[in-house]
Automatic annotation (TrEMBL):
The protein's name: Dynein heavy chain family protein
Pfam families: MT (PF12777)
Organism of origin: Toxoplasma gondii FOU
Domain of life: Eukaryota
Any single GO CC term annotated in Swiss-Prot or TrEMBL for this entry: dynein complex
An example molecular function term from Gene Ontology annotations: dynein intermediate chain binding
Gene3D superfamilies per record: 1.20.920.20
A GO BP entry: microtubule-based movement
Annotated ranges, domain Dynein heavy chain coiled coil stalk: 55-185
Amino acid sequence: MGALQASSSRPSESLPSLLVFYRYAYITPKTFIESIKLYGSMLQENIDSLKSKRDRLSSGLRKLIDTREKVSALEDDLKEKTIVVEEKKAAADAFAERVGEEKAKVTAESEKANLEAQTCADIQRNVSEQRSSCEEDLARAIPLVQQAEAALNTLNKKDFQEAKSLNKPPPGVEDITTAVMHLLAGVDPNIEVTNALVHTSLPKPQR
């Protein structure tokens, strides 16, 4: 600050007198006052800025706290859902295992059924072949039987007595006689064939 000397009514007096009568007035420069005002304005701006930042910080902290609470709730919910998912996964795995076992059983049963079906088909084919063979044999045997029956119709009791009287019949007579007895016994139940006749008079058929 500068000091300006005040006016006096006694300029010619001595120094001690001047010290008594002279007064000093201290005046603050205008630029300093402007600087103070500028400083105050800047200080207020800084205060307002800090308050705004403080408010934003408080709001951000509140949001962070709220977010943390929400995240914590989500984590708890996630843990619960994870447990449920694990339980469902375990149940699904167990079900899949049971399905696999049942599928294996069905596959085994299907293979067994296919094998049995193949066996039945083989048996049926063999039966058909045997039936065809039997029908062929029967077709060949029927004419022979018919011929034998026709030959039997020419025989009489005298022929049997003559055959019985032979001590040593010619070859083939025994077999023919046996076949005739079987045919007659099967056709006419009135003809009696005793065991003595079969075992003594007629030989057993040769197979």
